[in-house]
Amino acid sequence: MRITLQRMGLSEDALIGECNASFKQGTRFRNWSGCPDATEYTHPFSLPTDYAELNPANFWLSHGGKSAYADLVTPQARVIELGLAPKQVSAPHYAFTVNYGYHFDAGKFAALLHRHAVEKLGVRYVSANVERVDSDPDGDIAAVALDTGEHVEGDLFVDCTGQKALLIGRHYGSRLVSVKDVLFNDTAIAVQVPYADPGDPIASVTLSTAEPHGWIWDIGLSSRRGIGYVHSSAHVDEESAFSTLIRYVEESSPGVAPGSLSYRTIPFEPGYREKFWVRNCVAVGLSAGFIEPLEASALVLIEQSAKIIGEQMPRDREIMDIVADRFNAKMGYHWKRIVEFLKLHYATSVREDSDYWKDNREQRSWPEGLRRKMKLWQQQPPWHDDAPRLDELFPSASYQYVLYGMGFKPHYAVARNARFTRMRKRADEVFHGTRMKARQMESLLPTTRELVTAIAHRAAAQD
Fold this sequence. Notes:
Layout: H1 2-8, H2 12-18, E1 22-24, E2 26-30, E3 40-44, H3 56-62, H4 69-73, H5 76-81, E4 101-103, H6 106-120, E5 130-135, E6 141-146, E7 151-153, E8 157-159, H7 166-171, E9 176-178, E10 187-194, E11 206-211, E12 214-220, E13 224-231, H8 238-252, E14 263-267, E15 271-273, E16 277-278, E17 281-283, E18 289-290, H9 297-311, H10 317-347, H11 355-361, H12 368-376, H13 396-405, H14 418-444, H15 448-462
Parallel strand pairs: 2-11, 8-17
Antiparallel strand pairs: 1-4, 2-3, 5-6, 6-7, 9-15, 10-13, 10-14, 11-12, 12-13, 15-18, 16-17
Helix pairs in contact: 2-15, 9-10
């Protein structure tokens, strides 16, 4: 998202100042594993140090995995633990010390993008509802008829109509491929929770806490926290799910009365379109599909889709079919890999407190690709061949962070051959360097609250 906003010419100060935004450096998982020695772990955004040439998992495993994996391979784990920001106040827009994304108020962010697109980028915006889709004789969409009486003609239509999927689904009939047999969650209950004190620390990760029938997200903005319980309606009733969320708010937000807050139930069908680009219509966002908010995969796919459309905008109708075929193949690949990666979080748990976790551990609910990889990882740790494409949404390092954070221990013993001995020295140097970098960042970086406050003041002064 940093790259996209930078290309658009949108000021990062404006994002922070106008959208109650903060910085996200990864996800902190709590109580997912069920292992007494793996109650919490971090999936940071930064790759392990020297990851292109060195697979640190081999050497971590050779020591019996005694320390937390992320702590050993990247200084970002320590930065997250201390509540520090990903960069200094003086850093240029979009520059960073450790990799980051954002948490923000979605409504305010939409308004900021709207204003920037119309005022700076020349976008024409029409507020109306689609009443009818008019087609050419060959089956392409010729125009959409609006309830204002206007007909909007075009060569290419991007369907961003959410789960209604008015163009790609209702008009063209591209079916939704359900993945509910793999990923069971289909409902979320969301609530906005104020800070008890405006100066309370801001977590620069998404806090993800496992519950008996799902998990709770906890996202810190500058002005409030967004909290929600994602769960399976097949495993828990709505009243019990609501009680679980209330309990979490009470325990995590002293001084806040849960009964005074406004709650919203959001049902969803986990799945993705059979085809994302049909004739001259391409679906982006919820119209293309949605699974669950774990690891923010939906936002990643919006970024990827927009990038492809922008860079490969067809010059004529014949080229459009070629681009569409490539787009469908690429998006199909990404959705399948996302399903596989998200299922890894559940499949490796040993929790026994509910049928929800037991069902997730049943291999018949695992994608075939994950079953094969889990067998392979008994012999060797994940690395580049497990996520071989340059445009992978989740690199093999992400599999390592989750796999070993969940307490996975392979049956094999690391082969201590001549190559292992040679690389051992390099690994020790990398691990030592990681500790040194963490100490440097500890002394140089502000807290997330300090950075957000400084940027907001700077943005206000510019206005």
